[in-house]
Amino acid sequence: MKSLKLPLKDRAVLKNFKAGELVFVDGVIYTARDRVHDLISKGRGKWPFELKNNAIFYCGPTPKPKGRNFGSCGPTTSSRMDSYTPALYKKGLAATIGKGPRSPEVIESIKKYGGVYLVAYGGCGALYAETVREAEPAGFKDLGPQAVYKITVSGFPAVVGIDSRGGNVFKR
Questions:
Q1: Number of folded domains in the chain?
Q2: d(Cα 117, Cα 90) in Å, to the nearest integer?
Q3: Residue 96 domain boundaries
């Protein structure tokens, strides 16, 4: 098992991850789904965080229960963001986190810009909520669960779905 600390201090660390490996993510990640990606692509807003060396988790959390840091936050199908994703890796995004396979264009951008795609376990939103230590809205607050949230996680489990060399668990 490997650990990935975000945001990255040294992008070269991503070369150490191989498709199929279990990874535990620690640090800050940002949530964003298709609505935010679409609005930004149409010039109706800007990313409320620095893309370079950060990660986007495709999820729409449920409302935060009393006594919890965050609501249930399972992964959203990543392919819904595929048309937007290559441009984000080009701008320095280190990782995307979601579920399901990615398009050939996304895979090529991961290879070209040295990123990774992490696969989160579907149906485990409550488990992922337990890894959230801190959470705060970061942008697009009017979108409710599709808003961008800055979340600090500890021990967030994922599998390297596509590594920086193009290794791909969906092609085995």
A1: 1
A2: 14
A3: 2-6+18-164
